[in-house]
Amino acid sequence: QDHVCSLPKVPFRGAPCSDAAGSQVPYAAIMKQVNSSLSGVLWDEVQKAPFYEYKDSVGQFHQVWFDDPHSISLKAAYVKSRGLRGIGMWNGNSLDYSREAEQQTQAMWQALTP
Question: Is 46 exposed, middle or buried (0-12, 13-18, 19+ CB in 10 A)?
């Protein structure tokens, strides 16, 4: 189906379908790969998150989900609107801290405080 990517069932902490079947990719690699992907950036309205799709060198289909400044700002605004005590971020050291991505990385951190 279009835009449906199933994770293999890999038991992990009691969850039959989890991120244990996937892998983490540095943000710089995501930003480079999205431009040459099959789909370009797609948006999931339920998750409030961007993703893209690509095929690897052997023709296997993959889907990559990530956050960007827009998706993080929506999540941070939700936390604030509900009076919750904070927000967390997974692995900030996976951001691209190179000079070329300085503005985008700064925007990611600023998005945490709506």
Answer: exposed
Q: How far apart are CA 109 and CA 106, in angstroms?
A: 5
- Does the pLDDT at position 39 exceed 70? yes
- Tell me the β-bridge partners of 64: 52
Whether 78 contacts 87, CB under 8 Å:
no
* 1 occurs within a structural domain: no
The three-point CA angle 33-38-6 to 5° equals 90
Q: What domain range includes position 44?
A: 10-112
C-alpha closest to that of 54 among 79, 90, 25, 94: 25
Q: How far is CA 39 from the centre of its chain?
A: 15
Structure tokens at 44: 């999931």
Is residue 24 within 8 Å of 16, Cβ to Cβ?
Answer: no
> How many domains, in total, are found in the chain?
1
Does the pTM exceed 0.85? no
